[in-house]
Amino acid sequence: PPPQAALRAALGDRAYRNYLGLVFLWYGAVMVGGPFVVPYFVKVGGFSMTQVGLWTLISATSGLLFGPLWGRLADRAGHGVVVFRAGMVGAAMPLLWLLGTAAFPWPIWLSAVADALAWSGLGTALVNAALARAPEEARNGYLALFWLAMGLGGLTGSLLGGGLASLGPSSYHLPILASMGLRLLVALRFRGL
Q: Which residues, 6 or more positions from 116, have their beta carbon under 8 angstroms from its beta carbon?
């Protein structure tokens, strides 16, 4: 169908609009603290850029292990279950960052595994949940709105995080703490998917 018809179909689907609201809120919550993570690792965790790269490598490698496990769970229980469980891991992960310091960096290293556990499930399950809600003839419209909600949520969260950074005793702690609280609130709403 013409793109306008697919978009109208997606916008007319109230349940899908509610889902898009959760996607917007989740990515907003993530990006309240997300831009501050690497600077936090360097300034507070005492990481070098080489260690940041190693952290990323550990996360990426761990994701290769966790992805198939999430896939099997999605096949058995559905994408909503994966979104909820992975979302809860993603909500708790900032606590590991906040516990890490240059003198005690192990929580930050552990967060690389938690990052992989969360995003190897969330990344796929959120998109698949959108696809599962979309009639075949309007999938392009549904997906276009999904990516728009994700991007606008990220933009809004980043703006909020930037504002919070100037309010706290450090530029990093308050946005990361706010991100953790907001992630938890949204992840709890994922239970109903």
A: 58, 59, 60, 61, 62, 63, 65, 66
Contact predicate 129/79, CB 8 Å: yes
> Amino acid identity of 34?
G
Amino acid type, 125 = A
Q: Residue 170: what pLDDT?
A: 85
pLDDT at 168: 76
Alpha-carbon gap, residue 187 to 40, rounded angstroms: 24
**Could you tell me if 160 and 177 are in contact, meaning their C-beta atoms sit under 8 angstroms apart?**
no
Domains of the chain are 3-191 (1.20.1250.20)
> What pTM was computed for the model?
0.94
Nearest-angstrom CA–CA distance, 191 and 143: 22
Counting beta carbons within 10 angstroms of the beta carbon of residue 187, is it exposed (0 to 12), middle (13 to 18) or buried (19 or more)?
Answer: buried
| Helical segments of the chain, H only | 3-11, 14-33, 37-43, 49-77, 79-99, 106-133, 139-165, 173-189
pLDDT per 10-residue tile (average), the chain, 193 residues = 83 93 98 96 96 97 95 95 97 96 97 97 94 90 94 98 89 95 97 85
